[in-house]
Amino acid sequence: MSRILKQITVVTDGKSNIDENSAEAVKEAREKGIIVNAIGILPEENSLCAQQIIEIAKNGEGTYDIVPIEFLRKSLMMVTQKSVQMTLHKAVNSELKNILGKSLEEINPNVRVQIVDYIERLTDNIDLKIAILMDANNIMKNRLDKSKISVVKLFKPLKGRKGKTDIHLISLNPSIAFAIRKAISFLESEYSKAE
């Protein structure tokens, strides 16, 4: 397992260009081992836009949240932490199956507790590279300042981790697919590697 966990988090009101190219870009990210999460700045979860947000996260093997702009900071933190824990849990579970032939849920409860503790320590120690793709369409422009503040506030608690954290903010314009490919390039670059 890589010591650097790479994530893309798409933050959108769903009005940006979400199309088949977006799905292809998410697939490209997954092929490179990058998790793709999504946060919808939407009034309700049962809209078509919300379904598109959910699909991005599902295809990216990440997590999603639908929130009003006021909760973006908390949502960014929750989505980031949940995604890291899910990814590490999946990796450790895969290794357990290879070594023991059993999943985490199938092993002795006393050993399971130790492994869960290990995953929690790993969550705090692993290096993170995060690209946050922020919607900057006409509707979201008036919310952009609040969004930027949320990203800055996300960095503060992450600085307390033992592992290094590298966060990059990218505009979704002109499309989600374009921004995801730009994020892949950033996350794969030597310049941005956490050491």
Automatic annotation (TrEMBL):
It comes from the Bacteria. It comes from Thermoanaerobacter kivui. Gene3D superfamilies: von Willebrand factor, type A domain. This is VWFA domain-containing protein. Residues 1-96 form the VWFA domain. PROSITE patterns: VWFA (PS50234).
